[in-house]
Design brief:
This protein has 166 residues and is mostly helical. The longest helix has 29 residues, at 104-132. The protein contains six helices and no strands. It has helices at 2-22, 46-52, 56-68, 81-93, 104-132, 140-164. The chain is elongated. It has a domain at 43-120.
């Protein structure tokens, strides 16, 4: 087993030598650019929004995304006045014409931004959870009960053990 691990380690070192000689990549990476109003030519209207084909579930997803990005609206799958106002505020903040309707490009930017925010929120929750995992003292209610039982059983064991040592 050790020989296998050693052989794999040597192969990894030899293989990484080639990539080290290759140097830095000159190929540009694909990045998410902020919305540029000069590239978005078609204004969002009720017609462009209907062309997206948003189902009730997708409308809820848009509403959750708006809320996650700080544009609170009720998540009910219906684009009512509250949702239209939230979309308009989002459009204004991102430099789009404030129509309260989405087109395909805006929908993609909105859903991508919401997905990125969701990922960031998840990472923040994980980081926060790591710090508090061991700070509960006895480990919560189950740990407290277990500790109490251990103390009682250990105390009884000590008394009983002392009787039989004579």
């Amino acid at each position: 087993m050790r020989a296998l691990i050693l052989a794999l380690s040597i192969l990894a070192i030899v293989g990484s030598g080639h990539s080290a000689r290759a140097g830095l990549s000159s190929t540009p990476r694909e990045t998410l650019a902020p919305a540029d109003t000069t590239t978005v030519t078609d204004e969002a209207t009720q017609e462009t929004e209907e062309q997206i084909g948003l189902t009730k579930a997708k409308r809820r997803s848009v509403q959750r995304g708006l809320t996650r990005l700080g544009f609170d609206t009720k998540v009910n799958g219906k684009f009512d006045e509250s949702t239209r106002a939230a979309i308009a505020r989002w459009q204004e903040e991102h430099g789009y014409p404030t129509t309260g309707f989405l087109n395909a490009a805006q929908h993609k930017v909105l859903t991508d931004a919401a997905a990125e925010a969701r990922k960031s929120d998840r990472q923040d929750r994980r980081r926060a959870g790591r710090g508090t995992r061991y700070s509960r003292g006895v480990g919560g209610p189950i740990g407290a009960v277990g500790g109490a039982v251990r103390g009682v059983v250990g105390g009884v064991g000590g008394v009983v053990g002392g009787l039989f040592r004579r």
